Amino acid sequence: MSFRRWVVGLSCAALVALLAGVGAFLYTLQRDEGVGGIRGTVMAGCQPPKVCLDIPLPATQIVFRRTDDGVLRPVKRFRASRNGSFRVELAPGSYVIASAPDQRWGSMRRVAVRVRGSEIAEVRLLYPQ
Questions:
Q1: Average pLDDT of 58-73?
Q2: Dihedrals phi, psi of 102, to nearest 5 degrees
Q3: Which pTM was predicted?
Q4: CA angle 94, 96, 52 (to 5 degrees)
Q5: Which of 10, 32, 84, 90 can bridge 41 by disulfide, Cβ–Cβ 3.0-4.6 Å?
């Protein structure tokens, strides 16, 4: 094999590797673009003026989205971690979060939340004690 062929082969391999890296980078940017959602905590707590400690709950919630005819349709179900924290990816739009019906902690008041673009909306979900 001549030196010239070796250099051309090496150059082609380097170009393929570079293009593969750029393609993977662009795919990651495209995939992450527009991904927003909600994050926050689920707590058992008190409403003012009562004073008590908030306790993290690993409770299950359902995220609903209102359809054009006004009906709430479930789009995601999630469970908070043991420390009460959660993060859910959602497309931009308006949602309602409610407790799943099979909770041993009872139910919480529904919470309306809006996801704008790729932003993450902060939410605190409270189950009354």
A1: 91
A2: -95, 35
A3: 0.67
A4: 130
A5: 84
